[in-house]
């Protein structure tokens, strides 16, 4: 298992930072997790294809108290302003004389924020000094090349656990570039949503356990309610907590299995020697117990929304009869609030049936509108890209509010061709909102899986991506959370709430 990457330590400033550059400085981590500022190098950015020199417009202050993460198995890349070169650090000597092989440092974006640049790093499967590991890796690489040649026409590479012994897989976070300034740590992020309902102080309160006990006493045999209780207390899930706090968006997990096998699934069994943070539920609930949870929340909560498929279960439309019947029964009790289906879009006919019995909103998750890259990442079991696209048309025809949960990857998402594909969907009346979701995956592996540079168009940057779509479609909304559709003032909220891009 890789070492947990979160580093609680504040960066140790260099005792004698070199003069000459006022740009953010490079951070490096020691294998014990201590983070140090480099005395002379600037932080570098990675746009998904190239390393870039940082400018003040690229970064914002990182929220106070937000963790930095060391990236085991990587080497940090900085920019040396004395000679204009990007440098991969293989050793670092701290002010106290300690010398070590440094790891790159990153942060995971706080809720509501979008990653604009990856942490600049190289991955030690290419640079590791251990020759035995290198030989093993070369052998595995040769095998993967043979598999890839068989499997893909476009240069997409087959990734599997077999070749990954060269370094531990990184846990599934969105590794974002960070640097050090006199004022504190900065990160290559921008704000894309308002976060008033998601502040930590609104959750994790001492009265949650009492509220759970009271609510479970009302419906003691409901396995779904018990699952949500464990999601609230063990996984600290905000939407699960909302069910017991009887407010806003609640989550109703119903799916123990999925129609896809995404490379970066957070609830599937681990691959690539990479740990996953969430566990799927282990039973198939009945329509009746699901309906009771949904209806109670919709009846009681302010701004009520109940979401299927909220993050770390399987695919909620996989068992069509159960989800359809649960919505029908919930709607027989109340017409209040929003029933929202987060889905991979694999079951358009089920989505249609859900809409007919009272679902209101649809959010389809995908990493791209490129068929091959979608298939490479989602690895659909019994559906294909066309089924997923058909779900958009179904949602439009049934009058659902449609969002995408776009798993963004600077260097791929921000190509003009992706903007054009999304534009087409908006023009067809099939998309009202983009939820910009930072793809959490091992960056070393995902970048190898994407098509090579020769098959990518010019990059706009993630801010440029939003700007261009906003310019073309002024009413297309952007955010990172499900929209507050149950609030009567929602239509007046600006399409992009993050301010200046
Ligand atoms: S669609 Fe969702 S639940 Fe299914 S494999 Fe992908 S990330 Fe996991
Ligand atoms: S999002 Fe995950 S943790 Fe939250 S209720 Fe759903 S399954 Fe549980």
Describe the structure.
By secondary structure, this protein is of the alpha+beta class. The chain has three domains: 6-127 and 167-191, no CATH class; 131-162, no CATH class; 200-483, Aldolase class I (TIM Barrel). The protein has 13 helices and 24 strands. The chain has helices spanning 124-127, 131-151, 208-218, 223-233, 238-245, 287-300, 320-333, 348-356, 371-378, 385-397, 416-427, 443-449, 461-472, and strands at residues 6-7, 25-29, 35-46, 51-53, 60-61, 68-71, 74-80, 85-88, 92-93, 99-100, 103-107, 113-115, 118-119, 121-123, 176-181, 184-187, 189-191, 249-251, 305-308, 338-343, 361-366, 401-408, 433-438, 477-479. The strands form four sheets. Strands 1, 2, 3, 4, 5, 6, 7, 8, 11, 13, 14, 15 and 16 form a 13-stranded antiparallel β-sheet that branches. Strands 18-19-20-21-22-23-24 form a seven-stranded parallel β-sheet. The chain has a two-stranded antiparallel ribbon with strand order 9-10. A hairpin with a 2-residue loop joins strand 15 (176-181) and strand 16. Helix 3 (208-218) runs antiparallel to helix 4. The longest helix is centred in the first third of the chain and has 21 residues, at 131-151. The chain is globular, with a radius of gyration of 23 Å. The chain starts with 5 loop residues before the first strand and ends in a 22-residue tail after the last strand. The model is unreliable at 126-134 and 157-165 (pLDDT under 50). The structure holds iron/sulfur cluster (2 copies). One iron/sulfur cluster is lined by residues 228, 231, 235, 237, 239-240, 251, 253, 278, 310-313.
């Amino acid at each position: 298992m890789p070492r947990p990457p979160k580093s609680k330590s504040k960066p140790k400033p260099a005792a004698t930072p070199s003069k000459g550059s006022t740009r953010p400085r490079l951070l490096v981590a020691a294998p014990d997790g201590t983070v140090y500022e480099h005395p002379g190098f600037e932080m570098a950015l990675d746009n998904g294809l190239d390393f870039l020199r940082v400018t003040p417009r690229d970064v914002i202050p990182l929220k106070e108290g937000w963790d930095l993460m060391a990236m085991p198995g990587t080497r940090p890349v900085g920019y040396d302003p004395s000679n204009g070169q990007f440098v991969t650090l293989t050793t670092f000597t701290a002010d106290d004389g300690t010398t070590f092989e440094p790891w790159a440092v990153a942060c995971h974006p706080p809720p509501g924020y979008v990653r604009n640049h990856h942490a600049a790093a190289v991955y030690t499967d290419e640079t590791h000094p251990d020759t035995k590991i290198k030989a093993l890796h070369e052998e595995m690489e040769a095998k993967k090349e043979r598999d890839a040649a068989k499997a893909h026409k476009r240069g997409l590479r087959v990734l599997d656990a077999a070749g990954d012994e060269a370094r531990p897989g990184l846990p599934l976070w969105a590794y974002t570039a960070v640097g050090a300034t006199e004022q504190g740590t900065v990160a290559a992020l921008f704000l894309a949503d308002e976060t008033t309902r998601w502040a930590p102080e609104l959750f994790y309160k001492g009265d949650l356990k009492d509220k759970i006990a009271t609510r479970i006493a009302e419906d003691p045999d409901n396995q779904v309610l018990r699952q949500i209780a464990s999601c609230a207390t063990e996984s600290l899930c905000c939407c699960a907590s909302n069910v017991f706090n009887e407010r806003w968006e609640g989550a109703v997990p119903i799916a123990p299995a999925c129609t896809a096998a995404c490379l970066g699934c957070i609830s599937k069994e681990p691959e690539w020697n990479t740990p996953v943070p969430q566990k799927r539920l282990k039973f198939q609930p009945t329509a009746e117990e699901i309906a009771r949870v949904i209806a109670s929340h919709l009846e009681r909560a302010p701004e009520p929304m109940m979401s299927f498929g909220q993050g770390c279960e399987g695919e909620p439309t996989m068992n069509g009869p159960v989800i359809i019947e649960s919505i029908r029964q919930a709607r027989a009790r109340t017409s209040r609030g929003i029933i929202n289906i987060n889905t991979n879009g694999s079951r358009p006919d089920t989505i249609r049936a859900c809409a007919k019995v009272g679902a209101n909103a649809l959010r389809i998750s995908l990493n791209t509108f490129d068929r091959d890259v979608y298939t490479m990442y989602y690895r659909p079991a019994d559906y294909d890209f066309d089924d997923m696209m058909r779900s958009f048309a179904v949602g439009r025809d049934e009058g659902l509010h449609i969002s995408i949960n776009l798993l963004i990857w600077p260097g791929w998402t921000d190509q003009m061709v992706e903007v054009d594909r999304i534009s087409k969907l908006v023009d067809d009346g099939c998309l009202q909102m983009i939820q910009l979701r930072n793809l959490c995956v091992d960056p070393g592996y995902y970048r190898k899986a994407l098509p090579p540079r020769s098959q990518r168009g010019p990059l706009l940057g993630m801010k440029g991506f939003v700007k261009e779509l906003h310019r073309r479609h002024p009413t297309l909304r952007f955010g990172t959370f499900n929209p507050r559709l149950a609030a009567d003032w929602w239509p007046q909220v600006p399409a992009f709430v993050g301010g200046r891009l």
